[in-house]
Amino acid sequence: MMEDFRHIYIRLCKDHHVDPQDCVLETLKSLEHGSKNKAVLDLSTTSLTPKTCAVLGKVLATDRTFVEIKFSDCMLSEDAVKGLAQGLAYNTFCRKLDLKGNNIRGAATEALGKMLQHNKCLISLCLEWNGMGMLDNSFAVFCDGLGSNTSLKALDLRNNQISHDSVAELAAALKRNVHLRSLDLRWNNCGLLGGRSLLEMLQSNKTISRLELAGNNIPSDILKSIETTVQNNADRQAIVDENQKRTQTMAKHIRDMEQDKKLQLNELLTAIDKQEDIMTKSQKASTQHIGILQLALDERKGAFNSLAAKLSMAETELTLSEQKVSDLNSVINRLKLEMQEMAVSHVNEIHKMKE
Q: Sorted alphabetically, which keywords does the UniProt record give (predicted)?
């Protein structure tokens, strides 16, 4: 990823006829081979030209390498800040941006406002030691972008020469922004009117839980009221965060339970499918076995019927034989009687002859 970033930077420099700056190349090489946090691009205190910043902005527009980018104390020109802001407006990966000590004012301030209007991932922005409040119109553009931003959680505007009029613009923007939680306005020129604007804003904004206002010539009673309101917001936010944490925990627990139920259901369905396969195979085997037994039974039936027919024929023949035997016995008995009669007659004849 780091090597890809360096290659894209060099290629875009060639496409735009810009000489790659050694300080940028050295920083990228040190991140590739060093033990530093490779998710942080730190070009602080380097002297960057507007053309280099324009190229870096184009690279950062699609970058998914760095979650934190630092350009502090680089004394960037307006065009340099514009180039970076135009790219960072479409970055979807960076979470922290540090532009401390770059004398940002005028058109550069407006460019940062437009960046905030489009950027949806930045959560922390440091703009300490700049001159953003020097031109009220430019700062109003910045505030307009801040008011429509939905991701920024912490904003550092220390030492930016912000007047009470600019604070009023900032307060109006924060009435629309319900996402910013921490705002640092130390060492500016808020004054009484600025303090009142902030206090009025806090009546409707319930998300700012940290507001630093030291060095702004705000009367102590207003400061006390602001501190009380901010503390109430902090307490309320702590309760909301705790509820969200519990809700997330419960949601995770529910998701885990649903996942377990799904796994159990899948296992049950798999077991049922296996059981059905086993039953189907068993039924098929039983059907085949029954078919074989039916064939064997049919064969046995055929053999039995054949034997029954033979037995019937044998019984018939036996009946006929018994009839014949009976007839022969009758003939024999008759012949015996005839022979006895003949013997008696013969004996009588012999007696007659003897007489």
A: Coiled coil, Cytoplasm, Cytoskeleton
Compute, in degrees rounded to 10, the torsion defined by CA atoms 346, 348, 350, 353: -130
What is the residue type of 85?
A
Q: How far apart are the first and last CA of the chain?
A: 162
pLDDT at 268: 93
Q: Are 126 and 100 spatial neighbours (Cβ–Cβ below 8 Å)?
A: yes
| CB-based burial label for 177 (10 Å; 0-12, 13-18, 19+) | buried
Structure tokens at 211: 């507001």
Eight-state DSSP code of residue 16? T
Strand partners, 96: 68, 124
126 sits in which H/E element = strand 124-126
Classify each residue of 189-208 as buried b or exposed e, where b means 16 or more C-beta atoms within 10 Å of its C-beta.
Answer: bbbeebbbbbbebbeebeeb
The residues of the chain scoring below 70 in pLDDT are 35-36
Contact status, residue 151 vs residue 122, Cβ threshold 8 Å: yes
Judged on CB neighbours under 10 Å (0-12, 13-18, 19+), 183 is: buried
The pLDDT tens digits for 196-216 are 999 999 999 999 999 999 999
